[in-house]
Design a protein that fits this description.
Elements: E1 4-10, E2 15-17, E3 27-40, E4 43-51, E5 55-56, H1 58-63, E6 70-82, H2 84-92, H3 96-123
Antiparallel strand pairs: 1-6, 2-6, 3-4, 3-5, 3-6
Length: about 120
Amino acid sequence: MFQVASYETFQDGQVIFQEGTHGDWIYLIEEGSVEISKNLKGRRVVVEVLTRGEIFGEMAFIAKMPRTATATAVGETTVGIIDRDYYDNEFNKLPADFRQIFSTVATRLKNATEAVIRSVSVDG
């Protein structure tokens, strides 16, 4: 399905990428788990924990925006880095209108996630 360019292994607690950095890669979890978290007013909020076969890092890549969350290895975790040239080639085969839809969906998902987290932090 995905063409993986390389593999990288991270140890428990090691940050794969940090919220706010630029997203040049999409990752596929081969082994282990990845915790997705956001920093909210100095407090770390776990958004979700992803497991084998799931991808992450796609929102920043598709919408060409900074990373919306931090990805951290849970246990020893191996990820495949999806080949950027392959992905760009496949993505660019889509009509421009569809690429715009994906970008809009990624941006709206980012905004919705942040709104939910803000409301939880206000209530909690």
